[in-house]
Structure formats: C-alpha cells, structure tokens
Amino acid sequence: MRITTVLQAKRHNILEKVGELSKAFGNFPDSYVKRASEQVYWETPKAPQYTRTAIEKKNFRFTTNRPWTSQFRMQNMSNMKRKKVFVEPIENWSFFRGDRVEILIGNDKGKQGIVNQVIQERNWVMVEGLNCHLRIVGKEKDYPGVVIRSEAPLLVTSQVALVDPTDLQATDVEWRFTEEGEKVRVSKRTGRIIPIPKANEETMDYKGKKLYMTREKDTDVDVAQEITFKPKLCTFEMDIMESMGIKEDRIPKKTFWY
C-alpha cells in the first residue's frame, strides 16, 4: 500500500470522526453525537424486506461550533459550498485544556497563555486572552451591532508550542513510557515530564471527577460496576428454561443431510 493512500485514509477518518476530547468535554456518548450531527436526506423504510440503505452527508466541515449544536448543522447544510479543508493527521495528540503554550505567529508571537478549548477535528486550540479578533454581532439596518472580542483558533502543528514547566521555555514533546508503564509527555529539550493538567478532566457537568456530587437520578458507582451477567455455555432460551425450572423432555426427530 502506498504512503499517500494511508495518509488519505487517516485524513478521511479525521474529517469524519468527532475528536475524543470534544466528546469528553461535552460528556456525551458516541450514539448521541452521531445522532445529533448526522444529516440523512433519504433512507429505505425500516422493514425486513428492504436492504438498509441511506443517502446522507458524510464529510463535515468542522468549525468552532460543536458537532451536536444547531449552528454546526446550519454550517453544513447541503446547499452550502465551502472550501475543502485539509487536516494533517496527528497520531498522538499532545495538547490539552490547561496547558501553557507559546504562540509562534501573529501579533502575540512570543507570548504565553493557557489553552481553554481544544478542537481536535481541525488541530486547533484556543489560548485564553491571546490571538484575539473583533466580531460584530447583531448588526441590522438601524442597529450597528455589538463588537465582541474573541480568541481565534491556532494550529497545534505550526502555530503554538508547549511550554516546559521547569524553565517556562517553548519545547517540542514526545510520548514515552515510564518504568511503571504509564504513558507521559516528555520535553525533547530537557527530558523532563510535562504532566497533563487537571483542567483536562473538566467537562460540562463537573470541574473534576472527584468533586462531582451524585444526583437523584444518577447511578451509583457500585451499582454500575456490579457484575450481574454470568456467561454460560448455553443459548438464551436454554438459560431462561433453566432459571424457570422448565425441562425439555421431547426427543427431536432424526434428520439426514445428503
């Protein structure tokens, strides 16, 4: 297989798949994200005599709007023509919320800030208070609108670099394994470990897993981890008959295969 074919397949998967960090921050299951973002134009009736076939949009243009929002759906309508986006595949993602990074381009070149949002589908990160631009919102015929200052996305491949916490200098990183088998980020310049910040555990529901308070309709951890299924070498029907005390006393007829 050619290298170009492999790269095209990886790029195709990245453009289709929602990033794991995006789903973790939204705290949504894969089934909900797929159902909320899919756009089906036509599908066969849900009946056994029909082969399951559907005409749907498969290639989405990811933006700063999350895939399960109505804004994302409006930006990916079938009648909209957008420029093709090429995303460089990243096998090991190295940037997380809470990381200190240094900007390598633009007016804020050389400044350091904290990553407050990760858009893994486009290799983007947002840095708090840096690389900002002005947007006019709510502009109408008789109303000039409101000017909003917001952060613009930065490419992790060429526009930002992680900062080594030991000397606060920008550095390249690589993933290594410790003697205990833990996968960690290591600075190529100093060889020091760059820990993943606690802010990466933050989701839409809680600041940290340990700080989350169980609600009335939440399932307790002990109940969720309880093993209630015991595998057996029998079919589902045989298992039901055994649990209900039903014994099969009928003798099947002999069958012959030619």
Task: Tell me what the structure shows.
This protein is an alpha+beta fold. 19% of the residues lie in helices and 23% in strands. The protein is built from six helices and 13 strands. The protein has helices at residues 3-16, 20-26, 30-37, 70-75, 221-225, 236-244, and strands at 39-43, 54-57, 100-103, 112-119, 124-127, 132-137, 146-151, 154-155, 160-164, 169-171, 173-177, 183-187, 193-194. The strands form four sheets. The chain has a six-stranded antiparallel sheet, with no helix packed on it. Strands 11-12-13 form a three-stranded antiparallel sheet, with no helix packed on it. Strand 9 and strand 10 (169-171) form a beta hairpin. The longest helix is centred in the first third of the chain and has 14 residues, at 3-16. The chain is extended and about 85 Å long.
Count of DSSP-assigned helices = 6
Largest sheet: 6 strands, antiparallel
Give the CA-CA distance, first to last residue: 45 Å
Our Rg estimate from Cα atoms comes to 26 Å
Secondary-structure-based class equals alpha+beta
Q: Uncertain regions: pLDDT < 50 for 5+ in a row? A: none
What is the overall silhouette? Answer: extended
How many β-strands, per DSSP?
Answer: 13
**Helical coverage, percent range:** 10-25%
The neighbouring-strand order within the major sheet is: 8-5-4-3-9-10
Average of per-residue pLDDT values: 86
Strand percentage lies at 15-25%
H/E series: HHHEEHEEEEEEEEEEEHH
